Amino acid sequence: MTNNTADVIIIGGGIIGCATGFYLAEKGLKVYLLEKDYLTAGSTGRCIGGIRQQFSTKLSIRVAMESMKKFESMTEVLDQDVEFHRGGYLFLAHSEAKKTTYLELIKLQQSMGLDVDYISRDDIEKIVPGISTDDLLGGAYCPSDAQANPFLCVDGYAKHIRKNGAVIPHKEITSINIKAGKVRSITTNDNETYYAPIIVNAAGPFVKNVAQLVDIDVPIEAERHEALITEPMERFFDMMIVDYRNDGCYFNQKWGKGSIIGCYTPKPNAPGQSLGTSFEFVKEMGRRTGRLIPGLANIKIIRQWSGSYEMTPDGNPILDKTDIQGFYIVGGMCGHGFMLGPEIGSLAADFIAEGKTSYDISTFALKRDYTSKEVMK
Ligand SMILES: Cc1cc2nc3c(=O)[nH]c(=O)nc-3n(C[C@H](O)[C@H](O)[C@H](O)COP(=O)(O)OP(=O)(O)OC[C@H]3O[C@@H](n4cnc5c(N)ncnc54)[C@H](O)[C@@H]3O)c2cc1C
């Protein structure tokens, strides 16, 4: 039976809220995680499960590499199969400019111990049979990048939170109650109140809305991204393929079933929290996929959907306290929240419970200069 007082209340049942809750629970804290809908109803259940370490700054590469270690051991740690599979990520270069960018980034990534390399067009043809070589120069390939199942990861974290706390779906936080500059409690849409001295806003694309309940402005804006999945087919490539052309796309083959799952980044971007879908996307994704691997031109699409990226102005997450004592923000994953989630959750738990992290994350501060940019978006 759940009483209404915890050590920490987490708002949001996606990968970020659940990973943060898991690591706080590991520290012995009683965590209540409240979700307005069901676990994974937000971006996490709409993502395509890619996990990569190829980023452009020391901090983002480090966070991604630490997160990868956590994915590797997740099945054992959570005592649940999360369908982790190491198939790599391949960023294609169709221009000299892209090739130069990759070569520069690879130097930094290799200096940090990442097993990434620039590979030739011939090598790409060997690992992606049937790929079109039109304009293809080569690509940045990291074989230790991977994929996993977001639903199983969230479920695994949630099970552990429940051991000493609670995961409560269908509770929308409608007010955050403050006394003498400190958080005290939250109230839900059905007028229940839960008390805790620490409240974590992990509401994904809704972080801004939740922060507005206490008049804090957080520069996280939702952007709609569409995705689709095809009928299963015999496995013939193993990695996430990222076509970085202006009209490119990215997709992989799901571990197990062999369906192709993929997306592209709309240009111009599609701001807002809408979860609508379009025929334009299906048509265009079909064209882009078929151009890259002609053998995929006639494969049947079985489902399409959309979800939100949660964008910050510089492409980096926000993990910080606020001017209200006990109120924390963990969000703004900019479309990388699944892959970064385990390490972000662990860092957030250290920051919240101990006031410090094992390495410097000041780049994730709420009140930072947002002018720098993550290149590998
Ligand atoms: C099409 C697509 C493909 C993607 N592919 C990848 C990928 O391959 N790899 C990768 O790493 N990332 C990918 N992403 C990005 C990734 O899904 C997100 O970055 C990540 O899921 C964010 O997790 P989150 O926990 O912050 O947010 P969410 O999963 O959105 O969780 C936030 C939760 O908060 C809840 N909430 C909101 N307001 C309230 C409230 N007032 N009260 C209670 N609950 C509330 C929401 O219902 C939601 O469930 C993709 C995203 C999309 C849309």
Question: What do these coordinates show?
Answer:
It is built from nine helices and 19 strands. With 377 residues, it is of the alpha/beta class. The protein has an eight-stranded mixed beta sheet, sandwiched between helices. It has a six-stranded mixed beta sheet with strand order 8-2-1-12-19-18. A three-stranded antiparallel beta sheet has the order 9-10-11, with no helix packed on it. It is globular and about 65 Å long. The relative contact order is 0.20. The structure holds flavin-adenine dinucleotide. Flavin-adenine dinucleotide (FAD) binds next to helix 1, strand 13, strand 17 and helix 9.
Topology of this protein?
Blueprint: E1 8-11, H1 15-26, E2 31-34, E3 50-51, H2 58-72, H3 74-77, E4 89-93, H4 96-111, E5 117-120, H5 121-127, E6 138-142, E7 146-147, H6 150-164, E8 166-168, E9 173-179, E10 182-188, E11 193-195, E12 198-201, H7 207-212, E13 221-230, E14 240-243, E15 250-253, E16 260-263, H8 279-292, E17 301-311, E18 318-321, E19 327-331, H9 337-354
Helix pairs in contact: 1-6, 1-9, 2-9
Summarize the structure.
This protein has 377 residues and is of the alpha/beta class.
Count of individual beta strands: 19
Bound molecules: flavin-adenine dinucleotide
Indicate the radius of gyration in whole angstroms. 21 Å
The CATH homologous superfamily of the largest domain: FAD/NAD(P)-binding domain
Instruction: Report the mean per-residue pLDDT as an integer.
Output: 96
Tell me the major beta sheet.
Answer: 8 strands, mixed
Our count of domains comes out at 2
Classify the secondary structure makeup into a structural class. Answer: alpha/beta
Q: Provide the CATH topology of the largest domain.
A: FAD/NAD(P)-binding domain
The CATH architecture of the largest domain is 3-Layer(bba) Sandwich
Topology order in helix (H) and strand (E) letters: EHEEHHEHEHEEHEEEEEHEEEEHEEEH
How much of the sequence lies in strands comes to 15-25%
Number of helices: 9
Q: Could you name the ranges where pLDDT drops below 50 across 5 or more consecutive residues?
A: none
Strand order of the largest sheet: 5-6-4-14-15-16-13-17
N- to C-terminal separation?
44 Å
Helical amount: 25-40%
